[in-house]
Amino acid sequence: MSRVDVKLGERAYTIRIERGLLEQAGETLAPFARGGRLIVVSDENVWAAHGARLAGPFRVEAAIVPPGEASKSWAELERLVERMLALGVERGDHIVAFGGGMVGDLAGFAAAIVKRGCGYVQVPTTLLAQVDSSVGGKTAINAGAGKNLVGAFHQPAAVFIDPLVLETLPPRELRAGYAEAVKYGLIADPAFFAWCEANGAALLGDDVEARLHAIETCVRMKAAIVGEDERETKGRRALLNLGHTFGHAIEAETGFAMLHGEAVALGMTLAFRFSAARGLCAPGDARRVEAHLAAAGLPTRLAVGTPERLVGHMAADKKASGGRVPFILARGIGGAFVDESVALAEVAAFLAGELAP
Ligand SMILES: NC(=O)c1ccc[n+]([C@@H]2O[C@H](COP(=O)([O-])OP(=O)(O)OC[C@H]3O[C@@H](n4cnc5c(N)ncnc54)[C@H](O)[C@@H]3O)[C@@H](O)[C@H]2O)c1
Ligand SMILES: [Zn+2]
User: For residue 357, how far is its CA from the centre of ligand 1 (angstroms)?
Assistant: First the structure.
């Protein structure tokens, strides 16, 4: 069993990572029930596969949303918040976000705004949510103008990670989550990237030890970064957006037919190739990134949109201003840094080269 602390003063919390943790859900979650009742937010798939595991010395009130990114919407937020109010949720209460990143972002945001903020606990069920999104307190829904444009920083009170819950996760979702795990190696941990090259196939098979190692490595790094830069104001947390400026543009362009992690894989490959084109990193590093992500069954070649359209999505990004966007570039594997002022015109020229047949 591992415990990782997120050191945030009065908002500090612990992440528990343990094989079989859900078997003890009754004990683990009992402190978050009130008046014998535990409020759980989940999606239909997760609830069907694992809902019965949340049994304990409490009555479960489940708020189930349809699966998929489309549920990170005003409409589902409204339904969920009304449900929570009807259940009489109070500020001191904790709701349980039981699902992937979609459920975590939606339930976390609902918790941030109900009665000006109640508590919540993350029980992530996808690899993406276990290595990344369940930690750090970013919550959001999507708006017409783009992804995650409406949200709040709201830290969970605890995170409980059981790798065994991944047994039912579809392989494509597992691979997409793996992209976010590889991201941590690419940002700041070349030894972990090398570990991924050696052990990625086992992890994507059914090696629980490999999954535990990756989850713990990523969560430790994320906890440290969030502890230093909770609100992404010091340039540290922004590193976690490696591949995401390209990725969000690609997601928007494909109408979300591509999974978030898939778009991030392609986005990270593009970020490394863009860095190599600018003479920042060795072309061999960019090739190594591409080779590993492709071997993991992730997309690495851009085949959608036009440079103008893709850059148009970036200009709509919440971090863009004056024709420039902060970009995460790299001086090599494990050497990511924030470049505050990449001109979108330069990105467009690079993308034109990538899209050329
Ligand atoms: N808040 C953050 O810091 C942060 C970071 C990264 C990503 N995100 C967000 O996370 C979302 C993507 O998360 P995701 O990839 O987990 O997607 P998701 O939550 O949509 O889950 C993917 C699919 O897997 C199903 N599923 C989940 N767990 C399962 C299980 N154990 N067994 C079987 N099926 C299961 C879901 O029903 C869904 O169909 C995006 O909205 C992204 O913006 C947030
Ligand atoms: Zn992401």
Answer: 33
Count of CB atoms situated within 10 Å of the CB of 308:
11
Determine the distance separating the centroid of ligand 2 and the alpha carbon of 87, expressed in angstroms: 32
Q: Is the fold of 2-167 the same as that of 171-355?
A: no
Q: Is 9 left (phi over 0), alpha (psi -120 to 50) or beta?
A: left
Torsion of the alpha carbons at 20, 105, 247 and 238, rounded to the nearest 10 = -90
CA distance from start to end of the chain: 50
* Residues annotated as part of the active site: 116, 138, 180, 222, 232, 237, 241, 244, 248, 260
Question: Which ligand does the CA of 127 lie closest to?
Answer: 1
Work out which ligand 1 atom sits closest to the CA atom of 139: 1
Question: Does ligand 1 come within 6 angstroms of the Cβ of 262?
Answer: no
Q: Does residue 132 have a pLDDT over 80?
A: yes
Which region among 110-124, 187-201, 226-240 has the lowest average model confidence (pLDDT)? 226-240
Architecture of domain 2-167: 3-Layer(aba) Sandwich (3.40)
Strand positions, DSSP E, the chain:
2-6, 13-17, 37-43, 59-65, 94-99, 119-124, 138-143, 146-153, 158-161, 324-330, 336-343
Predicted confidence at residue 152, as pLDDT, reads 98
The verdict on the CB of residue 101 being under 6 Å from ligand 1 is yes
Q: Is the CB of 226 under 6 A from ligand 1?
A: no
Ligand 1 mutation pick, 125, 139, 250, max ligand atoms within 8 A of CB: 125
What does CATH list as the number for 171-355? Answer: 1.20.1090.10
Q: Go through the chain and tell me how many residues it has.
A: 357
* Per-residue pLDDT at 356: 85
Q: What are the sequence ranges of the domains in the chain?
A: 2-167, 171-355
Q: Report the pLDDT averaged over residues 99-117.
A: 98
